[in-house]
Amino acid sequence: MGAEPQPVMPSFVCVGIEKCGTTSLHRMLDQHPDVYLGRYKEHFFFNREFERGVDWYLDRYSTYAGQRLVGDITPSYFRNPKSYARINDLCGPETKGILVLREPLIRAWSHYNHQLLRAKFSVPFTETFDHPLINVDYPEAVRRFQQHFGDRGLVLVYEDDIAANPLVAAKAVGSHLGITIDHVEARWSNRGLAPHYVELQPGELVDTNDGPLVVDTAALVFASRPELSVVTPEPSDQDVAAARQQQASWTRSLGADEAAELRDRVFGNVVDEVEQLLGRSLESWRHADVSPPYELAPLPVAKVVDSGVAHAAVS
After folding, report:
1. Across residues 212-220, what is the average pLDDT?
2. What's the domain count of the chain?
3. More confident call, 281 vs 287
4. Which of 19, 38, 253, 279 could staple 110 via S-S, CB 3.0–4.6 A?
5. 236 is a domain residue
6. 22, 54: one domain
């Protein structure tokens, strides 16, 4: 019996940008028989976890089975300038790179909603533009990527490549990496969920995806990701008032006029600068819709029941 294949360093790295379609890129490549992306969706080694050492990183690839390509898709790498030198030093100067871009205001809007869902923000969208998670320096990100990867780098534009023709975009990724991709899911996008507060009243019948619930006691529920959802039985008037105030502060949509004003005031000449850097038109960015549909996060049924707030209805 031959020896088990040993983990190897990635031959390609997707360094960014968050909320631009990298989850779909991961899903597509993770299904390819010639590609191995490790045991986790993101690794964070070259930015946040570098001090843990190479052995820690290779352990995340411990189920490697000899696939031709090994990749790391961690879209926050672009934020740390040291990531590029570390990738070069440990993975080698021939490592290929991928950068995915999305219209700046829509990307900011998506990341804002993502942070709401994780209970990281509690202020209106328009008050977050000084936060680096929201306001990304696109020209600097593109320049840094081009300087490091040069011809070994592939830049995808969400609106013109992924959304407009996902199969063509997939084939471009395959060609860049040296593999054949002849099928892709029709929908690449990673649908967002919006957090919200739910006020439950005694005797109320609540219809959920897991079946109907009968509410036994008043409760205030923060519905978000399952691990972040919070159930407060018998909330005080102050609890309810604070929740309503916070809920009201969360911007749910942007009108065309407000979007145009924000693009001009916050992002300025970003489109022109990135067009020059990429050598391609980004006209779609000037008229992109900024009101994507965000479904409300589902009621955390298990937490509601376990907290004694409700019980499952008997049909």
Report:
1. 94
2. 2
3. 281
4. 19
5. yes
6. yes
- Six token digits for residue 254: 């942007």
**Same-domain pairing of 124 and 43:** yes
Distance, CA of 223 to CA of 297 (rounded, Å): 6
Asked if residue 32 belongs to a domain, the reply is yes
pLDDT tens digits along 3-16? 567 778 999 999 99
Cβ atoms of 113 and 57 within 8 Å: the answer is no
Domain containing residue 50: 12-177
Same domain, 40 and 172: yes
Please state the pTM of the whole predicted model. Answer: 0.81
Are 107 and 17 in contact, with CB atoms under 8 Å apart? yes
Tokens of 118: 């994780």
Q: Which of 6, 25, 18 is nearest to 47 (CA)?
A: 18
**What is the spatial distance between Cα 213 and Cα 309, in angstroms, rounded to a whole number?**
10
User: Contact at 8 Å (CB) between 195 and 224?
Assistant: yes
Q: In this structure, is residue 172 part of a structural domain?
A: yes
- 100, 236: one domain: no
Of 257, 253, 266, nearest in space to 292 by CA: 253
Tokens representing 194 are 């919006």
Residues 46, 91 contacting (CB under 8 angstroms): no
Distance in angstroms (rounded) separating the CA atoms of residues 244 and 235: 13
On the question of pLDDT at 188 being above 60, the answer is: no
